């Protein structure tokens, strides 16, 4: 099945991961939108990954969360996602921490909510109280993603651009699912900064470094160093990040339809089918090798 959609332009509609599991040696799996929706865990999704791992095949979670991996694991524990569903996790926060470490001694301005402060925990970060005092910016999100709009940050972004500050985007997602709502993320602010000429470094999907780092974790768990990327299945709910990033890396992609694209696909009204979703898939910038309503075995 590897790279079937890329070869034929046809996305396979499946009813469970078990239909295609034999074609893959490992999985990269998204977290938010697949294993949980920010408020509730999806037990069937965790069970599907657990069954895949039962065949001695590793699962690495890749999340664009702007927090260290151990912090996301703690959240998964609270939501009731069993650790039997995955071997390890890699987050945008982990990659961002590496950059902060490299820039030890420089003054960083944190643009984001207080809950993301663990991204700096244990690092030699020197915080700037204002953009005018900063050497670079780490953007982890909106200060208040329930109330703020990206446009509210225009004056701040203009001030950053005037000083030529680099923005390190700790979450390339544009939006994320929280319950039944879509909440803006750091990626939306980073796009707005780029639009006015600002320089941005993106940590996470769809950018290649996160896949290379995740592959290193697979190799430590027995994946041959020369195993083709096409033997890895990347699972996620976003065309722009999960599907585009996987295919650019060379892995096959499984789109979980009932995530951030739920309303675009009309899944709040109708069931997923090739008739209802085929035209939408064809119109996307990237077509997944397979699509599944929710992650189940």
TrEMBL record:
<keyword id="KW-0378">Hydrolase</keyword>
<dbReference type="GO" id="GO:0016791">
    <property type="term" value="F:phosphatase activity"/>
</dbReference>
<dbReference type="InterPro" id="IPR023214">
    <property type="entry name" value="HAD_sf"/>
</dbReference>
<dbReference type="InterPro" id="IPR006356">
    <property type="entry name" value="HAD-SF_hydro_IIA_hyp3"/>
</dbReference>
<dbReference type="Pfam" id="PF13242">
    <property type="entry name" value="Hydrolase_like"/>
</dbReference>
<dbReference type="InterPro" id="IPR006357">
    <property type="entry name" value="HAD-SF_hydro_IIA"/>
</dbReference>
<dbReference type="InterPro" id="IPR036412">
    <property type="entry name" value="HAD-like_sf"/>
</dbReference>
<dbReference type="Pfam" id="PF13344">
    <property type="entry name" value="Hydrolase_6"/>
</dbReference>
<dbReference type="GO" id="GO:0005737">
    <property type="term" value="C:cytoplasm"/>
</dbReference>
<protein>
    <submittedName>
        <fullName>HAD-superfamily class IIA hydrolase, TIGR01459</fullName>
    </submittedName>
</protein>
């Amino acid at each position: 099945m590897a790279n079937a959609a890329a070869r034929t332009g046809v996305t396979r509609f499946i009813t469970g991961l078990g239909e295609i599991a034999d074609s893959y040696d490992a999985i990269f799996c998204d977290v938010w939108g697949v294993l949980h929706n920010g408020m509730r865990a999806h037990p069937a999704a965790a069970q599907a990954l657990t069954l895949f791992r039962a065949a001695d095949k590793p699962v690495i979670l890749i999340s664009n969360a702007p927090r260290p991996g151990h912090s996301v694991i703690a959240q998964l524990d609270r939501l009731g996602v069993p650790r039997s569903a995955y071997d390890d996790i890699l987050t945008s926060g982990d990659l961002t921490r590496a950059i902060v470490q490299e820039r030890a001694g420089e003054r960083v301005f944190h643009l984001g909510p207080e809950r993301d402060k663990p991204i700096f925990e244990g690092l030699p970060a020197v915080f700037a109280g204002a953009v005018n005092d900063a050497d670079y910016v780490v953007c982890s999100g909106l200060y208040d993603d329930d109330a703020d709009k990206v446009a509210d940050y225009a004056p701040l972004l203009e001030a950053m651009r005037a000083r030529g500050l680099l923005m390190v985007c700790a979450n390339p997602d544009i939006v994320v699912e929280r319950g039944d709502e879509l909440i803006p993320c750091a990626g939306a602010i980073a796009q707005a900064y780029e639009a006015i000429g600002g320089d941005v470094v993106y940590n996470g999907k769809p950018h290649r470094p996160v896949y290379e780092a995740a592959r290193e974790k697979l190799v430590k768990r027995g994946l041959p160093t020369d195993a083709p990327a096409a033997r890895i299945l990347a699972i996620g709910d976003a065309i722009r990040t999960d599907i585009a990033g996987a295919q650019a890396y060379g892995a096959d992609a499984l789109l979980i339809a009932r995530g951030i694209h739920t309303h675009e696909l009309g899944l709040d009204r109708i069931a997923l089918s090739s008739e209802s979703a085929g035209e939408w898939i064809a119109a996307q910038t990237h077509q997944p090798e397979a699509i599944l309503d929710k992650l189940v075995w």
